[in-house]
């Protein structure tokens, strides 16, 4: 059976996440402890018993979701037999580690650098994102292009759900125009900045050097990358796409469509929550989806 393993991004976190994995065995526990050492603070304390507020900080959220996904994939052992992998935004790093292209340590270090670079870019320029529901992609693209301030389609989550990203003025203007054009909802998101937009350029520059200096090997199966939703196994190309990801859109709808076209028969979500399973179902109601479970 052709199985696609998919890895969630920011927003899937919850207090208590990963506690069961930590207690599972010595190997999983030592990976969490290694992460605490690399990070320089006990992220496990925040994950298992912190507050929602603590967990919501970008510098905590991103490594927390990465750790949950990657350690869960490792804990699956021989059960983890991917034909293909993909991750939503941050999840792309989890997917690369799970598929053997990045080491655990290198993956975590890149995720921390990415989170910090994004945080800085957010603080440098107030910006935001909004979910647009009930409009086709083309209409959203066209209206964003008409707005003079910075606003772009950022996350193609599923048909009829596209997240836009940009300056406060740009997003406000686009939301008003999109509502006029018939959007069911234009909902501002509770995020710190304009992820996957040109406003992340300073973060991209910072992360580019780190990615270029990191060893990436050929993954054990193709990874469908966010920037163009196509499958890759070549390390050089994977790096290029990872760098482009910060300012480029997450083409999740297209990723799922490509995986289905390439024969994916089952989608297994590896990480906290079930957001991606829901999005897969919205692309194809008949798709088989499940969460990665131990045992």
TrEMBL record:
A GO MF label: [acyl-carrier-protein] S-malonyltransferase activity
Class of this enzyme: transferase
Start and end residues of each Malonyl-CoA:ACP transacylase (MAT) domain: 6-295
Keyword Transferase annotated: yes
Gene3D superfamilies xrefs: Malonyl-CoA ACP transacylase, ACP-binding (3.30.70.250), Malonyl-Coenzyme A Acyl Carrier Protein, domain 2 (3.40.366.10)
Swiss-Prot/TrEMBL keywords: Acyltransferase, Transferase
InterPro entries: Ac_transferase_dom_sf (IPR001227), Acyl_transferase_dom (IPR014043), Acyl_Trfase/lysoPLipase (IPR016035), Mal-CoA-ACP_Trans/PKS_FabD (IPR050858), Malonyl_CoA-ACP_transAc (IPR024925), Malonyl_CoA-ACP_transAc_FabD (IPR004410), Malonyl_transacylase_ACP-bd (IPR016036)
Catalytic activity, as annotated: holo-[ACP] + malonyl-CoA = malonyl-[ACP] + CoA
Family: Belongs to the fabD family.
Family matches, as NCBIfam families: fabD
Protein name per UniProt: Malonyl CoA-acyl carrier protein transacylase
Organism lineage: Bacteria, Pseudomonadati, Bacteroidota, Sphingobacteriia, Sphingobacteriales
């Amino acid at each position: 059976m052709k199985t696609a393993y998919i890895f969630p991004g920011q927003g899937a976190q919850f207090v208590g996440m990963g506690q069961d994995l930590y207690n599972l065995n010595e190997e999983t526990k030592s990976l969490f402890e290694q992460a605490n050492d690399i990070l320089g603070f006990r992220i496990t304390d925040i994950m298992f018993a912190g507050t929602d507020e603590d967990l919501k900080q970008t510098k905590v959220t991103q490594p927390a979701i990465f750790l949950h996904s990657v350690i869960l994939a490792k804990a699956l052992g021989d059960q983890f037999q991917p034909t293909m992998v993909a991750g939503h935004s941050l999840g792309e790093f989890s997917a690369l580690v799970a598929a053997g292209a990045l080491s655990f340590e290198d993956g975590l270090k890149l995720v921390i650098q990415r989170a910090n670079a994004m945080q800085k870019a957010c603080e440098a320029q107030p910006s935001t994102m909004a979910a647009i529901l009930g409009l086709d992609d083309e209409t959203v693209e066209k209206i964003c292009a008409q707005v003079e301030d910075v606003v772009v389609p950022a996350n193609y989550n599923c048909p009829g759900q596209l997240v836009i990203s940009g300056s406060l003025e740009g997003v406000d203007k686009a939301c008003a125009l999109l509502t006029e054009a018939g959007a069911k909802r234009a909902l501002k998101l509770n995020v710190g900045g304009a992820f996957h937009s040109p406003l992340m350029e300073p973060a991209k520059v910072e992360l580019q050097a780190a990615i270029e200096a990191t060893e990436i090997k050929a993954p054990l199966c193709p990874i469908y990358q966010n920037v163009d939703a196509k499958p890759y196994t070549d390390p050089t190309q994977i790096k290029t796409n990872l760098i482009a990801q910060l300012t480029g859109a997450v083409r999740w709808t297209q990723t799922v469509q490509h995986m289905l076209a390439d024969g994916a028969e089952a989608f297994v979500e590896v990480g906290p929550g079930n957001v991606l399973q829901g999005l897969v179902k919205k692309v194809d109601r008949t798709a088989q989806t499940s969460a990665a479970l131990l045992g």
